[in-house]
Amino acid sequence: MPPSRIVATAEDEPGEGVVPLTDPSARAGLYSALSGVIGTEHAGVLMSYLPSDEPATQADLASTTSQMTAKIDQVRSDLTAQIDRVRSDLTGQIDLVRSDLTAQIDLVRSELSGQIETLTGRVDALDHRMERFEDKLDGFHEALLTQGRTYMISTLGSVISVAGIVVAITRLL
Q1: Is there a contact between 12 and 22 (Cβ–Cβ < 8 Å)?
Q2: Does residue 42 contact residue 22 with C-beta atoms inside 8 Å?
Q3: Cα–Cα–Cα angle for 29, 21, 66, nearest 5°?
Q4: What is the pLDDT of residues 25-81, one digit of tens each?
Q5: What is the secondary structure of 51-114 as a DSSP string?
Q6: CB of 53 within 8 A of CB of 65?
Q7: In angstroms, what is the C-alpha Rg of the chain?
């Protein structure tokens, strides 16, 4: 019967005389054997590098993988829910801002429409006044022409009369 080995290898099957390193008596025996060969200081350093817990098995890794997958799925689900809530909140806020802006634009449009109507009325009144002024100016122009003709005719008549008097006086003398 071969002596018991302390360290297990990948080829070892459970129960082949392999002592797990987690067994305190096996660790003490290994330390004692190493101390005799390489000294207590070096044996202590070497023992500090050996694991004190049992190594992970395939079942442990599968369980850890399953737990991590479940946690990742939960985080993904939580993040998706939070993103959906934020998206919903932002959509609501954007709709509210859009509604407020639309109302403000409609109010400004209404105010501008009223002011434009007021200005249109003023421009129409000015246009009417300008037409009346043009009519008065046309009347003034006609009157000025008439008076100018009358003045010219009366001045011409006066000049002819004076010329006749001058001719008569010169004939008399």
Answers
A1: no
A2: no
A3: 175
A4: 888 888 999 999 999 999 999 988 887 777 778 988 999 999 999 999 999 999 999
A5: -SSPPPPHHHHHHHHHHHHHHHHHHHHHHHHHHHHHHHHHHHHHHHHHHHHHHHHHHHHHHHHH
A6: no
A7: 61
Q: What is the DSSP letter of 1?
A: -
Rounded-to-integer distance, Cα 13 and Cα 124, Å: 109
In the predicted model, what is the mean pLDDT of the chain? 86
pLDDT band at residue 5, thresholds of 50, 70 and 90?
Answer: very low
Q: What angle do CA 151, 153, 154 make, to 5 degrees?
A: 65
CB of 75 closer than 8 Å to CB of 44: no
Report the percentage of the chain scoring pLDDT > 90.
59
Concatenated DSSP letters for 6-56?
SS--TTPPTTSSBPPTT-HHHHHHHHHHHHHHH-HHHHHHHHHTS-SSPPP
Q: What is the mean pLDDT of residues 130-157?
A: 90
Domain ranges of the chain: 1-53, 88-165
